[in-house]
Design a protein that fits this description.
Structural class: mainly alpha
Radius of gyration: 22 Å
Shape: globular
Number of helices: 15
Order of helices and strands: HHHHHHHHHHHHHHH
Number of domains: 1
Strand content: under 5%
Distance between the termini: 57 Å
Length: 315
């Protein structure tokens, strides 16, 4: 498997595992835990897991002075993105919230084009348009009830933070740092936000049932350690924009769990929105081959030379 194919595969794994957030978080909410407590334990449990993996590979924890600031900023961006998304779950269905979060690829493309002068190709623009159309269809349910404005703004804040993170993690300052180490220090920096918030609040909520600790561990493993590792590694192989667009699988995963496990409603309108997002992902993954086939199809109908066309028109 070549590096580009690995990048696509890692991006898909990252998206699918990040979409597991509602699966493990909603039972904790039902048990009375708040977003700050859930996210504190999620990050706290993921940090030693990544640290063990770093030591297991025989690597050290050294960081250059010039790398500290980017790592801290990225950690805070990830923490803000997680916090605003988890807060949004209190205002709307988790599947829909995770789907609206998918505006972040559009924000990534805009940032890359505006700040780093990355060219937005016709294919990329088409994918973004399809994804945005799918999100628009999911914004309003089949019963005509518009989603919570507060929840929508929270998801937008989450998407913007995550978009800046995706762009930032691909900058030269962190290019030489191993993926494991980047993820470790990003989460270590991010957990500080929840430490401060819980210290100011003065209350840390704990699960009332022993088996719910398994949910916290699962949050640390799947949508945190695995997802962020795969995201960073995918960005290094295929770039920020393709990785972001492949994130369309995040809301699909969340919707599947929301409908099958939590009884959330899925309308025909929702299905149409999901279909548009899937088409966008298909175009990204099969981009090169699709473009090649379109060129071959166009060559089957060559344009007539100018003189022949003029002669035909005169007749």
């Amino acid at each position: 498997m070549n590096e580009k194919a690995k990048g696509y595969l890692l991006a898909v794994i990252a998206a699918a595992t990040y979409g597991m957030n509602p699966l493990f978080a909603l039972p904790l909410y039902a048990d009375g835990m708040n977003p700050d407590s859930v996210l504190f334990f999620r990050y706290l449990f993921a940090i030693p897991l990544l640290g063990t993996m770093i030591k297991g590979r025989g690597r050290d924890f050294k960081v250059r002075r010039s790398q500290w600031l980017p790592l801290v900023v990225l950690g805070l961006l990830v923490a803000v993105s997680s916090l605003t998304l988890f807060e949004a779950y209190n205002y709307m269905d988790a599947g829909i919230a995770s789907t609206i979060l998918f505006i972040y690829p559009i924000l990534v493309a805009l940032i890359m084009a505006a700040v780093y002068k990355e060219k937005v190709t016709l294919q990329t623009g088409l994918c973004l348009l399809l994804a945005l159309s799918g999100i628009a269809m999911l914004y309003q349910g089949g019963d005509g009830v518009t989603l919570s404005l507060t929840g929508t703004l929270l998801v937008f804040a989450s998407a913007l933070s995550y978009a800046i993170y995706i762009v930032g993690v691909n900058r030269p300052a962190l290019k030489e740092m191993p993926t494991l180490k980047v993820t470790f220090y990003v989460l270590l920096s991010g957990v500080l936000l929840f430490v401060v918030r819980l210290w100011m609040d003065g209350t840390v909520c704990l699960p009332s049932q022993w088996w719910l600790w398994g949910n916290l561990i699962a949050l640390a493993v799947f949508p945190t350690a695995i997802s962020f590792l795969c995201t960073t590694s995918a960005i290094q192989r295929i770039g920020s924009t393709p990785t972001a667009i492949l994130g369309a699988l995040e809301p699909l995963t969340a919707i599947v769990f929301g409908v099958t496990i939590f009884g959330e409603r899925l309308t025909a309108r929702d299905c149409m929105g999901v279909t548009l997002i899937l088409v966008a992902v298909t175009v990204v993954v099969g981009g090169g081959s699709i473009a090649h086939q379109l060129v071959r199809f166009r060559k089957m109908f060559p344009r007539l030379p100018l003189k022949k066309r003029e002669r035909r028109n005169s007749k």
